[in-house]
Amino acid sequence: MSFLSQLTGPADLEMLASSTQILTSNPEELTAENVTTAAQIANTLLLSPNATETVRVAAVATVSQLLNASTPDDSQENNATLGLTVTLDQLSVNLSQSLNTSQSQVVQPNLVVQSAQIPAADTQGVQFTSLSGTSGSFVADRIQLNTNVSTVVVENGFVADALIYIRFTPEAVSGRQKPSNVSLGFVLYQNDRFFRSRRYRRGRATIRVLSASVRGQERSVVPQHVEMLFRPTMMNGTSLYDFACVFWDYSLQDWSTDGCSKGNASDGVLRCFCNHTTNFAALWSFREKYQYAEALDVISIVGLSFSILGLVVTIIHHIKVK
Question: What is the side-by-side order of every strand in the sheet holding 254-256?
Fold first, then answer.
């Protein structure tokens, strides 16, 4: 990958970003080596100080396509894609600042990067919401960011697939301190493809991962409360069995429940609470809803009837003998 250091001009970066996006447009055909190389290129592009908005969008599109790759577990690939998650967190919290705007976002079918800058004194809490759509892919007009809410809110008539709400400490939003800007970043992954767990077996279920990052000039600008909602996509013939609220621990390179707790699961929504910000997910298990043929029901009823009749006859026989 040494050739990447020689590509420093905006034109070179745009050509490389476009080429990589095209070469990964059929993710089902990619090998582990292909994914590793593409992830390293995307990582370099996103970290480059000379990257234009066009380069960033193409790089994020490449990452979105890599989330659809179906390669077997590979250590080099895992390291490359996991490194991408760190870069995306950095991008999300810095994007608005680098573009000198209050809010900015990049939305691709499998990936959303949302960034915002707000004065700490002007907010009680911030809510990032991904609303359900018909296609299942992320769409820009169904990604919402509310920068001043006191509690979790979903507008009537809308259904949220994933949501995260961050409430700050009272000191951070009070007017008694010197006003401070808060930079916030959110990254939403369509699946947990980049988070390969050794502890939790990856089943057939699709698990979305939602990242939140907060950076402020004052130490007091820290989250007091982090609340998340996840709506898992149930497969036909299954129902929710149980779930756990987790975050990705980079030191363990696996999911951990430290600092997180689960709330209720109602109306198909899993509620989670954590005392810090990072990459979150709700790991859930399901059970099959078996539907037996009508003939099997008749056989079961007849069999049970004969069993009960035999038990009654046996009891009567023992009574007469005694």
Answer: 103-108, 111-119, 181-189, 209-216, 279-288, 238-249, 254-256
pLDDT band at 290 (very low <50, low <70, confident <90, very high): very low
Tokens for 296?
A: 């099997």
Residue among 46, 143, 34 at smallest CA distance from 85: 46
Distances from the Cα of 207 to the Cα of 40, 87, 182, 203, angstroms:
24, 21, 29, 9
Burial class from Cβ neighbours inside 10 Å (0-12, 13-18, 19+) for residue 123 reads buried
pLDDT beyond 80 at 172: no
Among 316, 117, 282, residue whose Cα is nearest residue 215: 117
Nearest to 199 by CA among 264, 260, 257, 280: 257
Q: What is the pTM of this model?
A: 0.83
Q: What is the pLDDT of residues 193-207, one digit of tens each?
A: 999 988 877 655 678
